[in-house]
Amino acid sequence: MPERKPHPLLAQVPLTVSPFISLPTAITLPYTYKTLPSTLPPSSTGEDNGTGKPKYVVSASGHAAHPDEIIASCKALQAHLQKIQDDAERTIREWEDSIKERELAEKRRLAPGWLDREEKILEPAKKRSSVAASSAGVLPEPNIMDSQDGGPAVRSLTEEKAAEGEELDRAFGGMGLR
After folding, report:
1. pTM of the predicted protein model
2. Residue predicted with more confidence, 31 or 141
């Protein structure tokens, strides 16, 4: 056995023995211990789908697959997600359309025929001017504001109103106020 001399620098470092450090000891194996073979036999669970492609991509959970199978499952997942997104967009569009239809039905209920016409701006009926009324043979009604200090127009208007009141009294006469 050749003699081994320690390195001169290491020979200068004193060694101390610590009671807290224990050196590892040899492990004794049980009598039933068998060594693993270097190659594993084919799977007995029947996971081989007969494609003959080697499954060399192994996940942490132990599932093995060929890259083509992984790509195919990714494409199937992408198609499924696209279908779900299209269904969701169609549902939202149908929901928005139903809201618009309900609002339109409510507007038609409040103002029937309003939304079915072209003209949308309402204009009040214009009052006929006295010139147009006289040419048509209709006498214009006198305005109280046109006369000064109870002129003949105001007197005729108050007489007209009194005559209407008398007619009502004749029609509903005998009804006294209590």
Report:
1. 0.35
2. 31
